[in-house]
Each structure stands twice: as C-alpha cells, then as structure tokens.
Design goal:
The complex is a heterodimer of chains A (447) and B (460).
Chain A lengths: L2 H6 L7 H55 L4 E10 L2 H4 L7 H6 L2 H12 L6 H8 L5 H12 L7 E7 L2 H7 L16 H12 L3 E5 L2 H4 L12 H32 L4 H13 L4 H13 L9 H25 L3 H9 L4 H29 L3 H5 L20 H9 L4 H32 L4
Antiparallel strand pairs in A: 1-2, 1-3
Helix pairs in contact in A: 2-19, 5-7, 11-14, 11-16, 11-18, 13-14, 14-16, 15-16, 16-19, 18-19
Chain B lengths: L2 H27 L10 H38 L2 H4 L3 H15 L12 H37 L6 H41 L2 H6 L3 E2 L14 E2 L2 H32 L2 H16 L2 H22 L9 H26 L2 H9 L4 H30 L2 H6 L17 H9 L8 H35 L1
Antiparallel strand pairs in B: 1-2
Classes of the chains: A mainly alpha (447), B mainly alpha (460).
C-alpha cells in the first residue's frame, strides 16, 4: 500500500468536521495512488508472463535447432554403381571358399566401376580424390552380397553405396559452394564430378538405415546408434532389475515396519541427501569401489547399471514412499481385522494399491537414468566401440554418451548424427513419460 | 555350464522346491487343512527359500573371491624371481598371463614360463567353475532335502518366511546408508592418498592449476601444479550466471503459474516446464556448445567484443535454463502451501494482487523459496555435462563472463577420461576435487532440506 495513504489514515485531532476531512483526504490519497498501483500490478503480471514465455520460447528454440540440425541425418546420399564381379579378382581358383571370398579385393572392383564413369580422370592424384568420394563402406556392401550369394560372381550388379560424409554434406547443401576451396572439405574437382553424376541421374537420396542398424564408426556415413541403443538397453534392464526390488523393499520397510528411532532417522536423511548428490560423485564411487575394489569389468553395462542403480534408488524410494503414504490406514486395519499378519496386510493389500504410484516413480527414475551421462564417463563407457554389445559384461556405450562423443567430433556429419541421436533419445524419454502419465491417470485413486 | 544357465537351474530347483513343499504340507495335513499352522503356499515358499538362499549366497561369495584366490595361486606357482617383483610390475605380468589365457595379443614377447603360468591359470579357472557348479547345485539339493524333512503340520512356516522377507526389506533400506558410506570412504581414501603427494593447503589455496605430469623429469613444468582456487572461482562464476537466469525466471514463472495463469493455460505450461526438466543434460550441453556459444561469439564479434567460444556466459546461461523448471516447481510448491486465509486477509484490506504477492505471500514463503534456491545452487555446482561440453579446460582466474573458465566437474572428467593409473597424483586429484564437491553440495543440501522442512511444519 502506498505510504501517503497510510499517513493520511490517522485522524486529525478535532471534531466531526476534521474526521470528515481526514476521510476525504484518505480517499483522495487512495485514488491518487490507484493509477500507479494498477500500473505496478500490470507490470508485475507482465514480468510473470515474460518469465513463463521465456521458458517456453527457450524450449522451442532448443527443439527447433536440434530438429533442424538432425533431420538431414535421416537421409543419406547414395551413388548408383554397376560393379562387374570379375571371377579372376574374387575367386581365382573357383572353389567358392568363403575364406577367399571374404578376403578378396573388393575395393578394386569399386574403383573399376568408378573408373567406368570417369574414363577421363587418369592422374594419380585426381583418381585418389575421386575414390575418396565413395565411402569405404562400399566394399563391405559388395562383400556381404557376394558372401550371401556366390552365384553373383561373374555377373554385373547394380548397387547403391553411400557417398563419403563430406560429399553427402555438400549434396545436402551444408557446404558453401562459393567458399574458397581451401576452406571447405570438398574440392572444386569433386564438385565437378559430383555434378556430372547428378546430371547422369546416378545420385539418389535414401532413408539412412545405417543410422539405426550400425554401431559407431570412424566414418560418419557408416556410423549408427544401434550399438548405443543396445548398450542402453542392457544398462537399463540391469538397473531396473537391481533398483526396483531394493527401492520397493526400502520404501515398504521405512513406511510400514520401521520403528521411529535414530537409525531410521539416519536412513531418512541419507536418502534425501543422496537424491541431491551430484551424479558425477556416483561415477567416482563406481570407479573406486566397483571397478577398483570389486573388479567389475570397465566400460561394461554391468558397472554402468550398478552406478545408475545407486543413483536412481533414492528417486524411486521417495516416490514409492509417497505412494504407500497415500494408501489409507483403513485398508491395513481391515486386513489386520480379519486376521492377516502385518506382512500379509502389507504385501497382499497395501502394496498392490501403491504399485501404480511406485511404477510411475520407477519409470521416471529410469527416464532420468537413461539420459544420464556424467557418471558413465568416469567408468569408461566413453570408449570407441564398433561392435554391438552382446551381453552385460561386454564393453558398451549408451545413447547419451554416444551423443557426447559425436558432438565432440570435428566432422559436420557427426554433429548431424548427434542431433538425430538426441531426437531418438528424446523420443524414448517422451514415451516413458507418457507411459508414466497414463499409468497415473489409469490407476490413480482418490480415497 | 555358463553362469546364467546355473542361475536358471537354481531358479528351476527353487520352483520345484515350492511345489514339493506345498505337496508335503498338504500330505502332512492329511486332508484337513486346518491342522496346518500356515497356509500351504507358505510351506512352498519356505522350501524354495531353503533351496535357493544358501546356494545363492555361496554363488555370490564365490564370484567375489574367485579372482583373488586364482590369482594368488597363479602367482604362487611362478618362479621365485618373478614372485618378488614390485606390485606394479607384478600387475603387468598378471595382466599378460590373463591376456595369454584368453587368447588376446600380449604386449611383449612371451617370457619363458609365462605360457605355463597362463595354462595353469586357465586350468585353475576351469576347475573353479566346475567346483562352483557342483557346490551350488549340491547345496541347493541339500537345502531342499533338509527343509523338506522339517516340514510338518506344526512348522511355523509363515513366520519364518516373513522373517526372511523382512530381512530383505531391511537390507534394501540400508543400501542408501551403505552408498553414502561408500562415497565418503572412497573419496576420503583416494583424496588422502592425493594429499600425501600434495599438501591440502596447496590444493585449497594454490592459484595455479596444471595437472599434466610430464613423462620425463626434465620437461618444463614436470611437477604439475594442483592449486584448485581457479577451479573454485570458475565454478562460482558459472553458477552465479546460472542463478542470475534461473532465480528470477523460475520464481516469476512460478508466481505467474500459481497466482495469475488461468487454469487452462496452466495445464499447457506445466507439462512444458516438465519437458524442460526431463531433457537430459547432455542435450543442454549440445545446445550450449553448438548453438548458444557460437551465437554469443558471433554477436560479440559483430559489436566488437571478444567473446571466447567457450565463454562462461554461454555455459552459465544454458545451465540457468536447465535449472528454471527446478526452481519453478519448488517455488510453486511453497507458494501453494501458503494458507488461503493470508491471501484473503490481504485482499480484504484492499491490496492489489501483486501487492499481496510481494508483501504477504513471498515473505511467508521465503524460507521455502530460499531452500529451493540453495538446492538449485547445489545443482548448478554439481552439473557436469553442460560445462564439459561448453566451458573451457584452461584454468583462468577471471570474473569476466566472456572468457573461458573451467570448473571442478570439468576437471574431474578430464582427469579421469582415458588411460589412467591409480597411483598418479593426476588421477587422485580428481578424487580430492570430488570430495570438495561432495562436501559443498552436502552442506547446501542439508541446509536447504532443513529450511524447507521447518517451513513446512510451520503451515501444517
């Protein structure tokens, strides 16, 4: 309230007239201040609106830039090659021995095919530049085709193979054609050849399946997130298996059985504090205790899951306790009244009623763990891993770490793929959150 | 037999035990279920536990102890000269033996006797595996027979099963305490080893940070410097910038949502803030490093300012954005906890809505809001990915937000990524930094939780 109004509110010493005067003065002072006060009100409200708007706009910008950077990664520019599978190159003896087939020089066949397109490119340097336009993955494509069907040998096959990431970026318009040749990763000659290929209809753009089927690679056009997805899958499965029973057990004990004493107080304070300890500290714990002391293999989903379990436990415990608290005492009393033991009342009646709330908390905790990166860097899950991990003790990486690794890479194409990986990760997280919301909506009971 | 098959076999045995236990109990009851002390299923659980738990305990213990025992046996079998090597070189030797045993490439030429040792190692490991399978299965069967003998109509099966379940519940609740103990123990232990090499005073008050230990003694800066003050300053700078963004925006949006926003708008904005809260930090880091930082650099260049591409400003602002939903939801909770009567009293006296908020609600909610801010600061200090990706590595002492600074968390990550040995001060320094980080956040958290708790009690 404005000060002038307060000051004038004191009635002056005098008769009725002066009281009337004082009233007059008060209402005048109040109405004089009103305009200013309303302006302040509007300003304050505007600040609130702006703050909220800021948060919304920032989210919009964040998603927009990620989608804009990431979308091109879902397509890959391919070149159509017609490769002649000369029997004398692949299998000189003609016995179709898999060993021979797998070690044949397919790169040469690719180069021959490219030479057919550009008979005019003859100098050594030029040819090197020309061959550099095609991804090293081309040879694997041919090899796996031949290995799968040796009868192809001797025939001429039409295939589509990925172009090298720089050419791909150029095709997507990400490299400035006008820039000085020294400042871009594609040379003028390569642009000329690329143009000729386009004119002859030999360049096509396809959906990038490699992104979803391959592991990591040094060449962006051959790199995929499948290895990281599988690593995340193992890590999350183990985390769930370890953290859910422990957390539910802890919550049930603390909420239903624990006596109120110093020890349970210590546990309570501990859980609340652990929920706020920086995640990187859990990584240090994992490094010193799980890897250093217990000898769990470095970089394995197992050690990652152990660390993430400890990290998500407090989150799930807190949510589970809230779920147990919301079950009314009458349920317990009714069960005890008909002769159930305390454990039966809890396990048969209270726990099932609290389960949806616990599951919601668990899903949210898992979503948190799925996006966690920092502690995993400490325990060696940043390694460059090409193979798809086949078990919880193999070396593996997880999606957020893959994003971190790619966004650190100098190649533009990796940045693009990192954005695409973020989109996939956010997709998973959205599904998990929607699941949690649906679960809450479906089973939430108001007592 | 692989370990997972063994576990599966154990599971099958336990299920079988459940069935057998139930059957025995039913036959002991002789058709009259009332003579049984517990429900038949409890006898099943009872026997399943007898079959499963001892075997599982041995299984776990075996897996933990096996590597040590096998290793000491292998070392014991080595010639005298190799047995007395220094621990470091012995470790290398054992590594070689292991690599040989698993058919990997060995780092150097195979020494005579090493091949033998590797074979010895493989033999021992195979024996141990077979012994494990035999022991576990035998124990499971023994437990089953023993438990089955004890089943009678008078056996208090329910009570015993419930005791086991309760023990499991208690174990679950102690994991949190064990975790804290593990954190404290490992940090203090490793940091203690670091402080043997570098004095705590130098670490806490030194102003030069260059942890690179040179390979040769005569190289420049061969010793490395471990004065952590620049890291503390950098952390503080970035956290302050973050809080400058998060505090006003978070608080004002919470006020707007709680007091002004029409319900329909609230149902739209709340999920949006929740999305912001659910975005992984690595995504914010990506955003900071590839969008915000270049934007600031280019804007700075356009107006004639040199802004580093790893400026504290970019990292701080993005970190602030990350914390907005956190501040907002905590403030929202405490604002909503202010009793309605206080609001209505203020309106009744003729105050406008904003006057009520500023003079009544915020003062009443202040302890809760401050607690929320403290938690937010602790989050900013402990946040890792954003700074790892967007802040610098060089330890500058500056308060200029346009320069690159480094933080405690960045240094922990850089010190520990890649090859490492546990006895160099460089690696151990990470644990000392971790200890500092843990203590700072612990104090902030305990303080904040205490304030928030007190505040809640006030209005309950």
């Amino acid at each position: 309230m404005s000060n002038s109004a307060n000051g004038a509110a004191l009635p002056g010493a005098g008769g009725l007239g002066s009281i009337f005067d004082a009233r007059q003065q008060v209402s005048e002072a109040v109405s004089a201040g009103l305009k200013r006060r309303y302006a302040r009100e509007r300003r304050f409200r505007l600040y609130g609106m702006l703050a909220t708007l800021f948060a919304v706009v920032v989210l919009g910008i964040l998603l927009f830039t990620i989608i804009r950077t990431g979308l091109p990664a879902f397509t890959q520019t391919m070149i159509k090659l017609s490769v002649t599978l000369y029997p004398q190159e692949i299998d000189p003896k003609g016995d179709r021995d898999p060993q021979t087939l797998s070690s044949a020089d397919y790169q040469r066949l690719v180069r021959d095919a490219l030479d057919d397109y550009f008979p005019d490119v003859t100098s050594r340097n030029d040819r090197r530049e020309l061959f550099a336009m095609i991804s090293p993955g081309a040879t694997y494509v041919i090899r796996s085709m031949v290995m799968a069907d040796p009868s192809l040998i001797g025939k001429r096959i039409e295939i589509e193979v990925p172009l090298k990431d720089d050419i791909d970026q150029f095709a997507k318009g990400k490299i400035d054609r006008e820039a000085d040749q020294a400042n871009r990763r594609v040379s003028d000659k390569q642009i000329g050849w690329y143009q000729r290929l386009v004119d002859r209809d030999l360049i096509v753009s396809r959906f990038n399946t490699t992104l979803f089927t391959a592991g990591d690679s040094r060449s962006p056009e051959l790199a995929g997130i499948w290895g990281a997805v599988v690593g995340s899958f193992w890590t999350m499965t183990l985390t769930l298996l370890m953290s859910f029973p422990l957390a539910v057990g802890a919550a049930v004990y603390l909420e239903e059985f624990a006596p109120k004493n110093r020890w349970t107080d210590v546990i309570e304070v501990n859980i609340n504090n652990l929920a706020a300890v920086p995640s990187i500290v859990f990584g240090l714990l994992g490094l010193a205790v799980f890897i250093g002391f217990f000898g769990v293999p470095r970089s394995s989903p197992m050690v990652g899951a152990l660390v993430l379990t400890l990290m998500t436990l407090p989150i799930i415990i807190i949510a589970s306790r809230a779920a147990l608290k919301s079950v009314p005492p009458s349920i317990r009393e009714a069960a005890l009244g008909v002769g159930a033991s305390k454990m039966q009342a809890t396990l048969h009646h209270v726990l099932p009623l609290a389960m949806p709330g616990m599951l919601t908390g668990t899903i949210l905790g898992m979503a948190h763990a799925l996006g966690e990166t920092a502690p995993l860097l400490m325990i060696g899950m940043v390694a460059f891993i090409v193979d798809i991990p086949s078990g919880p003790l193999n070396s593996a990486t997880v999606m957020p770490v893959q994003i971190y690794l790619w966004s650190d890479a100098p190649e533009r194409a990796f940045i693009e793929r990192a954005s695409a990986a973020i989109m996939v990760l956010l997709g998973f997280l959205t599904v998990m959150n929607l699941l949690a919301v649906a679960l809450r909506k479906r089973f939430e009971k108001r007592w | 037999m692989s370990l997972s098959t063994l576990l599966l076999a154990l599971l099958v045995l336990s299920s079988l035990a459940f069935y057998l236990g139930r059957k025995k109990a039913l036959s002991a009851a002789g058709g009259n279920l009332r003579t049984l002390h517990s429900l038949p299923n409890y006898y099943g659980y009872y026997l399943a536990l007898w079959a499963g738990i001892p075997a599982l305990a041995v299984f776990t213990l075996w897996l933990v102890l096996e590597p040590q025992i096998v290793q000491s046996l292998v070392v014991g079998g080595l010639p005298e000269a190799q047995r007395n090597l220094s621990p470091g070189r012995l470790g290398l030797l054992i590594n070689d033996i292991r690599n040989l045993a698993s058919g990997n490439i060995v780092s150097r030429e195979v020494a005579p006797g090493l091949q033998e040792a590797a074979e010895h190692y493989v033999r021992l490991r195979d024996t141990s595996r077979i012994a494990l399978v035999v022991a576990v299965l035998a124990l499971a069967v023994a437990g089953l027979t023993f438990g089955r003998q004890r089943i009678s109509a008078h056996l208090r099966a329910r009570n015993q099963v419930e005791t086991v379940v309760k023990v499991f519940l208690i174990v679950g609740s102690t994991v949190a305490v064990l975790t804290t103990a593990g954190i404290v123990f490992s940090l203090v232990f490793e940091a203690g080893r670091f402080f043997v090499a570098v004095s705590p005073a130098e670490f806490l008050f030194g102003t030069e940070w260059s942890p690179q230990i040179a390979l040769r003694k005569d190289q420049v800066g061969a010793q490395g410097a471990f004065g952590a003050v620049p890291l503390f300053a950098g952390t503080l700078l970035i956290s302050v910038i973050a809080m400058c963004v998060a505090m006003p925006v978070g608080l004002m949006s919470a006020i707007y949502m709680a007091e002004y926003a029409p319900p329909r708008l609230r149902t739209v904005i709340k999920p949006i803030l929740e999305i912001l809260a659910g975005i992984p930090t690595v995504v914010y880091g990506f955003f900071a490093a590839l969008t915000v930082a270049p934007f600031f650099r280019d804007t700075g260049a356009a107006v004639g300012l040199t802004i580093s591409s790893e400026s504290a400003l970019a990292a701080g602002i993005v970190m602030g954005i990350m914390i907005i939903p956190f501040v907002s939801s905590l403030s929202d909770d405490v604002i909503n906890a202010v009793p309605r009567a206080m609001r209505e009293g203020s309106y009744g006296l003729g105050a406008t809505q904003s006057e009520t908020i500023r003079k009544v609600i915020i003062p009443a909610a202040l302890p809760g809001i401050v607690g929320g801010f403290l938690l937010a600061i602790s989050r900013a200090i402990g946040e890792t990915m954003i700074v790892v990706m967007a802040a610098g590595l060089t330890a500058n002492m500056t308060i200029n937000p346009f320069h690159a600074v480094t933080t405690i968390t960045v240094q922990i990550v850089t010190l520990l990524i890649g090859d490492q040995e546990f006895d160099s001060p460089k690696t151990l320094a990470a644990f000392a930094l971790g200890l500092v980080l843990f203590l700072i956040t612990l104090v902030l958290n305990i303080g904040a939780l205490r304030i928030v708790k007190k505040y809640r009690e006030q209005y309950e």
